Amino acid sequence: MRILAVLLLAWPVAAVERAPAPAEAPAAASALPPEAAAPAALPETPALPQALAAKAAPQPAAVEPRAAAAAAPRKVSLCRIKRLARAAARARAAAVSPGRALNAFYDLEPGQAVQDPVPVSLEESARPWRTQTQLAKLSKTSREPGKPFQFSIIGDAEPGRFWIWRALFNVPGVFARLLQRADQTPCDFIIQLGDMVSRGTPRNFSRFFALLGGASPAKPYLTLIGNHDRWRPHGVTNSRLYRALFGDTDYHFDRGGVRFVALDSSAGRLTPKQLAWLDRALDTPLRKIVFTHMPPDVLSRWTHVAGVSAGGGFKKGSREFADIVSRRGVERVYMGHIHGLGVIEHKGVRYVLTGGGGSPLFPSKVPDRFHHFLTVDVRPEGLRETVHRADGSSFVLSKKPQDTN
Question: In which domain, by residue range, is 371 found?
Fold first, then answer.
């Protein structure tokens, strides 16, 4: 597809340079909207009388065979096509909104194309919720290692992309109510496991910040990026807007003798660079807890259907991730993405799925599907999770996992 796109972008420029005669050539297909690809029409030149036109027309000169061969169109190298493609892309980018035309059409990764600037009003709305701002707020109080403390976790909150999903599988306003209840617990911080919005657009994030402003959590509120928080929710798509609003998507912090690691799995994969970063982040004598949006695909009881991966978890880097957290002695991995509640033991690590923060409760292989949030008590003897349901009831999560994998 990338080579095809390069050729399509290069075609109009290359055709002009290689044309041996001024005869009209067929127009090349363009990936951009017609109004952006086509220049404004020039006014027509009045037609000359036929006799005058014949006199004014240039007479063809005799061309020797050698000169004719020299005038023949040259072959264009791949490097030249690439240069022409870049020039064509820059020309088009100057004429049309590049964020909407190029990124939306090609679903480019960050750094591959320019992006529309973040609206100033959205930047101002996001400023209080940036990760570094919230971590600075958390650092104003301290916890001694070995002393008990608590934190809260809320899973997927996006309300559903389509009205039929919202009508069949969701209840309006659940996330805001759960967030307010979590804020009333004696937790040190709240972390949301991604999928705050149905799709990562300025309009959706603006609505989400308005919701946060209405809920007004007093506790530090941290976030992960989910697949729906990207430019498009499926595949490797643009995450630039999320990063512009919140900051880095991979980060860690220490509190009360525990290393907390937030890892970006929103693209449905972990890159070798991310895995190396994770291994370094977990290289510490502190206790270790990992947060990530998608479960690793190796947890097949959640992510596979009839023995085949069904897209419920990230595949690339899945086994390496499981090996690293097992080797580094991670106590818990908390995840969302699948809208339900579950616990699995894998290679000595306890994986807790908590994706019911307000998103539609779609049918899935996870039997316990209800809206909820968790509070986690960090104690010297271990971790204890309490499940708080949307109906106001609560219970302690069993120490015995639902299954092993």
Answer: 120-404
* pLDDT tens, residue by residue, 300-352: 776 666 565 656 777 899 999 999 999 999 999 999 988 889 999 999 999 99
Is the pLDDT confidence value at 167 over 60?
yes
9: which 2 tokens?
């972008």
CB 153 within 8 A of CB 188: no
Name, in order, each residue with C-beta under 8 angstroms of 55's C-beta and a sequence gap of 6 or more: none
For residues 161 and 123, give the distance between their C-alpha atoms in angstroms, rounded to a whole number.
24
d(CA 152, CA 134): 15
Distances in whole angstroms, Cα of residue 355 to Cα of each of 22, 28, 195, 294: 63, 47, 10, 10
332-335 and 190-192 beta bridge pairing: unpaired
Is 293 a member of any domain?
yes
- How far CA 351 is from CA of 109, 185, 203, 280, in Å, comes to 30, 23, 34, 21
pLDDT at 280 > cutoff 70: yes
State the CATH number of the domain containing residue 213: 3.60.21.10
CB 30 within 8 A of CB 8: yes
In the block, tokens 């080579």 appear at 3
Residue 132, burial from CB neighbour count under 10 angstroms (0-12, 13-18, 19+): exposed
Is residue 76 in a domain? no
How far apart CA 155 and CA 393 sit, in angstroms, is: 17
Tokens of 27: 């127009």
Could you give the CA distance from residue 382 to residue 397 in angstroms, rounded to a whole number? 13
Distance CA 328, CA 21 (A): 69
DSSP annotation of 331 reads S
Better-scored residue on pLDDT, 212 or 115: 212
Phi, psi (rounded to 5 degrees) for 253: -150, 160
Q: How many domains are contained in the chain?
A: 1
Packing angle between helix 318-327 and helix 272-281, nearest 10 degrees? 10
Residue 61 resides in a domain: no
Predicted TM-score (pTM) of the model is 0.70
Residue 294 tokens, joined = 């998608």
Residue 12 placed within a domain: no
Closest CA to 88 of 165, 30, 45: 30
Q: pLDDT by residue (tens digit) across 96-130?
A: 444 443 333 333 444 434 456 788 999 999 999 99
